[in-house]
Amino acid sequence: MAEKMKKSKIAFVCQECGYSSVKWMGKCPNCGEWNSFVEEKVSRAKGERRTLSKPVKLSEIGNKEYKRWNTNITEMDRVLGGGIVPGTVILIGGEPGIGKSTLLLKSASNIANQGKKVLYVSGEESAQQIGLRAKRLKIDTDNLLLLCETSVENIVETALKIAPSILIVDSIQTVYDSLLGSSPGSISQVRECTSKLTISAKENCITVFLVGHVTKVGMIAGPRTLEHMVDTVLYLEGDRTQSYRILRAIKNRFGSVNEIGVFEMSKGGLVEVNNPSKMFLDERRADTSGSVVVSTIEGTRPILTEVQALVSSTRYPVPQRIVAGSDYKRFSILIAVLERRAGYNLGGYDIFCNVVGGLKLLDPSCDLGILTAIASNFDDHPCSGKTVVIGEVGLGGEIRAVSQIERRINEAERLGFTKSIIPNGNLKGLNKKGIQIVGVRNLKEAIEKSSATI
User: Fold this and answer.
1) Residue 25 DSSP symbol
2) Distance between CA 79 and CA 81 in Å, rounded?
3) Inter-residue contact 374 to 315 (CB < 8 Å)
4) What is the rounded average pLDDT for all residues in the chain?
5) 426 closest CA partner among 413, 411, 407, 445
6) Strand blocks (E) in 113-182
7) For 415-449, where are the alpha helices, taking DSSP H only?
8) pLDDT tens-digit map of 80-132
9) 55 CB contacts (<8 Å, ≥6 apart)?
10) pTM
């Protein structure tokens, strides 16, 4: 009996979440996106059986310490947990033109100057274009090799021949597997290409950097499993109209996910900012109502930044509540606490709040600073220019203690601040002589003591 020919099945796959359906649908029932289904061929390709792995006793595994490779970019090494761990797979995402390729090219150059071989694979630009960028960044090294290729088989084969320490793929959405019938950038292509690159990296101890495109909502394009497959996920954030960029770790198997790196875009590429607190406060006017300095903790680093608030009478039935750099729902809760517990009637006013420099405040210790800024602008009374406000605000209007208070105060003192308003619960054990420390118990007391006239 003749063997029946195997036909490739057709499936419709959502390009946002990876949901699969046998027919096309206008709206994805899983993620709710419209017009996200793309037709893909699902074929079962024959693959070679891999060598059988043997189980190893946990007690027999030595506690081998990996020596991390430094990129000589302090901010990037901080986010990675102290440097690059050999054999890891790192995914970096960000909006177009934010500086991903520039940052990786500079890091690759620094590593190549240490005697390690780096292979930079580009599927979007030609070698001449990358050469022009390298010339602008003043990069010149023989250990940095360029390859313009989009076939994952050719990339893996070239990497095995060259045996680089670092492999950079820019970007994963342009790479394709010839065994799959779908187009580059589709769900199946991104998943399979990442899988092959990950297996090759683990078997040959090659560190792989993958550049990922982002969707319109800021998530890395491709299946959600892509972030589970890699060891580290980095996001390069910032507004392209501004010069500052923030590198943030979303996932890191070899370090903390709370660290951030701050960079400034210049003619010579991304320049690291070693003192972000000073950068965020450089253009602050101390005599303006609605301006308050708060302290947030990013990993192990305390950062001081300015919070600005503007309260204006509205002509519309529903007043506006707009915040940039903080959580909107928490912002709405804080406004309700200010009205109910401190006696401010804000029902007929628009309230706008902005965190200077593009920093996102997720630390609850900034609650008191936000409310103090709103009260300051509403009363038209500037806060003291040399005062930093720290504290979490409860629904009862009480000021709750925060963590790492000494680090926050030390940073404020180092930058020349003379007064710090903190929760009364953090006063115990503090012995600071170079800065005045004021403990507060409730919201009303904090607003009164933050005034410039006191």
Assistant:
1) -
2) 5
3) no
4) 87
5) 407
6) 118-122, 144-148, 166-170
7) 443-449
8) 999 999 999 999 998 888 889 999 999 999 999 999 999 999 998 998 999 89
9) none
10) 0.76
